[in-house]
Amino acid sequence: MQQARNRLNLSAGIASVTVALTLIGLKLWALLATGALSVAASLADNVLDLAMSAGALAAIAYAARPADHDHAFGHSSAEDLAAFLQSLIVLGSAGLIGVLAIRRLLAPEPPAIAAEGTGIAVMLASLLLTAALVLWLRFVARRTGNRVVAADSLHYLSDLLPTAGVLVALFASARWGVGHVDTAVALLAAVWLAYSGLRIGRGAWDALMDRAAEPEVLARIHAIADDWPGLSGWHDLKTRTAGSRLFISLHVEIDGRLSLNEAHAIADGLEHALESAFPDAEVIIHTDPVGPGSGRQAKG
Questions:
Q1: Which residues pair with 238 in a beta bridge?
Q2: Rg of the chain in Å (alpha carbons)
Q3: The most confident of 22-36, 53-67, 251-265, 285-299, by mean pLDDT
Q4: Is residue 84 within 8 Å of residue 205, measured between CB atoms?
Q5: Strands 245-255 and 233-242: what pairing?
Q6: Can you give the pLDDT at residue 299?
Q7: Quick one: pLDDT band at residue 204, thresholds 50, 70, 90?
Q8: Which of 5, 65, 82, 275 is deepest in the core (most CB within 10 A)?
Q9: Which helix or strand (DSSP H or E) is residue 278 part of?
Q10: Where are the beta strands (DSSP E) in the chain?
Q11: What value, to the nearest 5°, has the Cα angle with vertex 110 and ends 104 and 116?
Q12: pLDDT tens digits, residue range 99-154?
């Protein structure tokens, strides 16, 4: 099961790198032909896509390594580190593109755009390639829960709207000779990039800082534990995420008069139930005896 998820994650990383390389080649050709700033912004985004996708692929491969004596909980935090670095690169590119767009808006006359037909053809091909990649990445992310693949799908998804904007800018230039549309599209692309970078970075930062799982995950854990037969109560629930993995630690209270085998069966059943609900989770259950002779009282 885990090996199948690892293969899916690796296929997503390889697909991202391949598409990024293809888009860079196409958009470099379009930039040289048109001189459009919106194309330059889109090209810069794809250069960053390549860097991020290559880093993501390396992180996915490293995170897939099994736990060892130096990393008892595995290597999945590499995914969060890669996602956080991705967000910093995205924010830097957003700032650069935004500055260039503002400078061009303040210029008396926008630079002329040439060979709009070539640019339009390239951007249409880019739109189709990116859409196909996003569909594959989102499929893999749903199947595996991998945070890096999800981040990759988000920033490629964020490419679709700016790419459509570049098409509008090139069409406006070709049809009506309007050049400032190109600059406005570049500025909007910068804002979108900044928003995407902040969103990706926040999730990765939370994981690196061992923040608890999302409220809906905690609610589901509560529901399973509350209804589990044989428990007198439970306490000290602790959760954290690392990459696509969820770590759950929980103390359960069991009647101290039960045999060790009976108590173990109850706790083991709850552990398997949580692992079924969260397939990538590592669950640790601590059993605490309660009731007469146990030194503790059961919850009422």
A1: 249
A2: 25
A3: 251-265
A4: yes
A5: antiparallel
A6: 43
A7: confident
A8: 82
A9: none
A10: 233-242, 245-255, 281-290
A11: 115
A12: 877 877 776 665 555 556 777 788 788 888 989 998 998 888 888 777 677 777 77
The set of residues, in sequence order, having a beta carbon less than 8 Å from that of 221 and lying 6+ positions away, is: 213, 237, 239, 248, 250, 274, 277
| Domains of the chain, CATH where assigned | 2-208 (1.20.1510.10), 215-290 (3.30.70.1350)
Output the six-digit token pair for 247: 């770590």
Check if the beta carbon of residue 226 is closer than 8 Å to that of residue 190.
no
Q: Span 231-235, mean pLDDT? A: 91
Nearest one of 183, 66, 201, 165 to 113, comparing CA atoms: 183
Encode pLDDT of 4-62 as tens digits: 777 787 888 888 889 889 988 888 888 787 777 667 777 777 777 787 777 777 766 76
- List 254's β-bridge partners, or say none: 289
Tokens of 20: 């990024």
Q: Are 230 and 209 in contact (CB under 8 A)?
A: no
Amino acid found at 264: H
Cβ within 8 Å of residue 264, ≥6 positions away: 287
- Residue 159, token pair as written in the block: 């490419």
DSSP H stretches of helix in 107-146: 116-144
